[in-house]
Amino acid sequence: MSLPSLLDTFPEELLERILYFCVVAAPDPQASRPSWQPQRRRAYTRLTPLLICKSFYRIALPHYYHTVHLTTPEQSSCLRTLLRRRTYLARSVRRLVVTCVASDTSPAMRLCTGLTALDVTLDPYADSESFCDTLETLEKMTCFTLRKQHNIYLTMPSVRRFMTRIAATIASWPRLESANLAFRLSDDDGPVSGIAQALSFAPSLRSFSTEVPSLWNEAILRISHNPKLEKIVLGGEDAARGGGLYMVQARKHPRLAELIKNGTPMIRTRAHTMIVPPKMVSSLSEVVKGAPTPQVARHRSLKKGGRFC
User: Fold this and answer.
1) Is the pTM of this model over 0.85?
2) Which residues contact 128 (CB under 8 A, 6 or more apart)?
């Protein structure tokens, strides 16, 4: 049986779901490859299913543009040109992962009429005013992620201005359900506190994610005051070790501790108990009955040492 005739027997809904997992890009920013490391040649890419036949191309093309990564100014320019020529693809772009804010990034974002998720990496050299003006027009935003590189500091003036605008922009996203600040927060009475205050009043916020702070501060506590919030997801090395010193203070706030417990399974407020089977209990009890008490064991050891005659 040939491939076209075999595809005719498949329901298009099932075929579309299969192709969705084949062509949709990863939601997280891709790690940059060192210049000295040779690039691997793969036998297939996300584009491969679109080249098999016309049916695959028609079904998979909208999903191919579901998640778009903009890592260079050239990619922003190409996306802007593409969406102007093929306007029907503009509503297919649901998630943008921006690691390089260029001059064409804002015009390209305005063309994405179906955009609901945004992942932005802080860029101290970008035009934050134009970019944030575009963010305020994204009323359908439901998921927002803000990242920073290891060599970018929150004390930089350009970064502080950008985060201040982000705090003001969150108020224009009434459908925001998930927020992720992928770095350690600090309570500095500046842009971080402004973002925390804005998230505490977000009317649809359900989930908040961030890294465990090194020391106690009230930034996450302020966000936990949002009555709609259902869970707080804490990441980082300290989360794997139980939260460190931060959780010692967080447990003093019942609302905050409960949200962290709901979103971070590895951090618990109580120790787990092990259920021992009945057969094991009976065998253990027999062993305990035959074992000497600590006083008897000490008496025997002293007798062997010659201290008792």
Assistant:
1) no
2) 101, 158, 161, 162, 165
